[in-house]
Design a protein that fits this description.
Distance between the termini of chain B: 22 Å
Structural class of chain A: alpha/beta
Strand order of the largest sheet of chain B: 6-7-8-3-9-10-12-11
Shape of chain A: globular
Number of helices of chain A: 10
Helix content of chain A: 25-40%
Order of helices and strands of chain A: EEEHEEHEHHHHEHEHEEHHEE
Largest sheet of chain A: 8 strands, mixed
Structural class of chain B: alpha/beta
Strand order of the largest sheet of chain A: 6-7-8-3-9-10-12-11
Radius of gyration of chain A: 21 Å
Oligomer: heterodimer
Number of helices of chain B: 11
Bound molecules: adenosine-5'-triphosphate, adenosine-5'-diphosphate, iron/sulfur cluster, magnesium ion
Largest interface: A-B, 51 and 51 residues
Strand content of chain B: 15-25%
Largest sheet of chain B: 8 strands, mixed
Radius of gyration of chain B: 20 Å
Amino acid sequence: MSAPLLTIADVAVELPTPRGSLRAVDHVDLSLEAGRTLGIVGESGCGKTMLSRAVLQLLPKRAKLTGRVMFDGQDLAQLAPERLRRLRGRDLAVVFQDPMTSLNPVLTIGTQLMETIQEHLELDAPEARKRSIELLAAVGIPAPDQRLAQYPHQCSGGMRQRIAIAIALSCEPKLLIADEPTTALDVTIQAQILDLLAREQRRRHMAMILITHDLGVVAGRADEVAVMYAGRVVERAPTQALFKRMHMPYTEALLAAIPKLDAAPHTPLPAISGRPPDPTRPLRGCSFAPRCRYAASDCHHAKPALTSAEIPGHLYACFHPIQMTERVGA
Amino acid sequence: MMQPAVRAEPLLNVDNLVVEYGLGNKTVHAVSGVSLQVARGETLGLVGESGCGKSTLGRAVLQLRRAKSGRVLFDGEDLTAMEGEALRKMRRRVQLIFQDPIASLNPRRRIGDIVSEPLIIAGVKDAAERKRRVHEVLSAVGLDPDLVAGRLPHEFSGGQCQRICIARSLVLNPEFIVCDEPVSALDVSIRAQILNLLEEMKARFGLTLLFIAHDLAVVKAVSDRVAVMYLGRLCEVGPSERLFARPAHPYTALLLQAIPVPDPDIRPAESVANGEPPSPIAPPSGCRFRTRCPRADQQCSAEIPELREVAPGQFAACHHPLA
Ligand SMILES: Nc1ncnc2c1ncn2[C@@H]1O[C@H](COP(=O)(O)OP(=O)(O)OP(=O)(O)O)[C@@H](O)[C@H]1O
Ligand SMILES: Nc1ncnc2c1ncn2[C@@H]1O[C@H](COP(=O)(O)OP(=O)(O)O)[C@@H](O)[C@H]1O
Ligand code: SF4
Ligand code: SF4
Ligand SMILES: [Mg+2]
Ligand SMILES: [Mg+2]
């Protein structure tokens, strides 16, 4: 096995709030090799974005980060701000849920693309322009040369996300973090954007972290999936193993809550009752216990550690793991 | 499955509705001649991509946006011809739930006041009666009235805000609710809670629903029949099971293929129709879907396809429907 491109070791993020310190990320370990896709799945607020911002070293100012983020042989936390800035946008790129987070509303699309390219690659203006047009064409934008002169607000949501992806890909990054890149988009456009990301990833042998709250989005597209809950990774497995032999009640509940196309209309959905725990309150026991249908008394007293399952690379954190044979149908 | 009795007098009958917006000197053709019926007690799902006119249609049904032409018959009466007091009276029977639950609640008002506001507007003067109604609907949507009534919207999550919006829409005892993407802004887990809640409320209060969404799986979960819209026109309408099993319109088939399936053995099909919908300012001639349709031919650009019955209760507007 080759050395991983990215290693997240015991990473924790705490954020100061008026109600006390908030555990946004609670000691996460993950690794990712070049050319592979890691899906990160979990409900809103479970720490997906904070984890990716920890990797990018783009946390809110007062956040406290512990643990190590090794990328391409260097510890990002130790890197000087200037070197970090150059790394981001070049080797380490990101696409956010809201494309306007990464696009500047007052600059034309051409200016934004060309600036990024010229900042990181040694290209003159005509070359950068040519490359911008190629990139826009690659992400499926019709008449790309005309788009260069337009502003983001003149494009639809789907177009803007394509442009944000073009900018992210412009310097051939080694790792692309896509944080809910399609959550704000229609299903048809979502499918196009996910295909686009997969295609560019294969072509560039790029590593990708695909963050979403929908297990359906990662099913056919990630090599490995990590399920997060209340700041922790609670299950992690090669994609096939996760869907076929999941052990975590939370993973099962997330999957069951997705409306199924083959279910008859008016079939009640197995919803997860309640909400994730307040991350500013101390937790005893399993964080999922108040919502878990399998919870027993031990679940409320001790915290289950991540444990290896029978399949290599499959880990879960549960005292009473489900066996897929027992799984009640969705 | 039992067919809903569409042949009986429908509660809502939208007849050849046209809604346009002026944009500078141009016209946005948001809804261009849509006809549909919703039977009493039925849920009609309405799907289509962003910008195809779903919300515009919903708002035009409620007369929040006046139609350029066409009629909206509610319980036999034409809402488009109503004004003033008559319309206000009618509006109590028809309510709307929005996509963005947080934005649709006034951030400076307490939940109890937000939910009782429609009662005040409707002229319910008895404060005790208002309080009773507010308690009743808040409990119905799964909130504890004593805990929530005095709090402000920012203290609640998106899912809870949507519960509050649903409570507000129920407080006047309406017969019909237009749900405009009520779960699109919510997480998978909360989405399931809210969908179940809507189903419960429908049964408990005897509601009829027009349920708008862009996610077909969500729509199927709650709808008896489904209508598919594209760029201001209706493509297909039919019983949910039938439409999902045997879509007749190429656009319905495309939407079905785009749904991410939570099964790693099903490789996602490379996105079939590339590109995005054309501008509703200058929609294509003939069939509006032809610029993305794999079956398009000469006839499709020359003639507007009419809705035709392709199977019992299933209608499609296509010159070359799928078998
Ligand atoms: N006030 C307005 N002025 C001008 N054009 C408008 C206005 N409101 C909507 N439109 C346009 O009318 C068309 C239909 O819009 P509508 O909001 O009904 O779509 P929708 O199907 O509800 O989309 P979404 O899924 O994004 O909510 C779109 O092209 C939209 O840009
Ligand atoms: N800037 C911030 N300040 C304080 N808390 C924050 C901030 N951003 C996010 N959080 C909190 O951190 C936790 C994790 O958030 P986030 O990583 O954004 O979740 P996700 O991306 O999974 O939805 C949540 O409890 C959230 O409310
Ligand atoms: S440890 Fe207990 S509460 Fe937690 S997921 Fe497992 S069974 Fe449920
Ligand atoms: S009428 Fe023609 S273009 Fe329109 S959906 Fe049918 S085959 Fe496609
Ligand atoms: Mg996030
Ligand atoms: Mg809308």
